[in-house]
Specification:
Elements: E1 6-15, E2 20-28, E3 33-38, E4 41-45, E5 61-65, H1 73-79, E6 83-91, E7 96-103
Antiparallel strand pairs: 1-2, 2-3, 3-4, 5-7, 6-7
Length: 105
């Protein structure tokens, strides 16, 4: 039987800055995805894919953007003990910052 690459932490409140959402924080390591599943609607993505820039996070890690509605999100997740920032990246035509983080659920 194959080992699951998905980790779930229930009853997590994520502070997005303008709004706080509570639900299950789900880390799918195989697909390098971190999202918050909640009862109010579809899952709220936390991570982003940077494959378009030729970037893939290391196993156990995901990328989190630090612009727009996710500005400051990495710092708030780290303060809550949910991720550990590994390094910052500059991406895109606007030289935006994203972080590769180790998920520590």
């Amino acid at each position: 039987m194959a080992e699951s690459t998905t980790t779930v932490k229930h009853d997590v409140t994520v502070d997005f800055g303008a709004i706080e959402l509570t639900g299950a924080l789900v880390h799918d390591d195989e697909n390098r995805v971190l999202e918050l599943e909640n009862a109010e609607g579809p899952a709220e993505p936390i991570s982003i894919s940077l494959q378009g820039y030729g970037l893939t996070p290391e196993p156990g890690n995901v990328f989190i953007k630090d612009w727009s509605e996710h500005s400051g999100l990495t710092a708030r997740l780290a303060q809550a003990g949910l991720v550990t920032p590994m390094h910052a990246l500059t991406v895109g035509p606007y030289h935006s910052t994203a972080y590769e983080v180790q998920v520590t659920l």
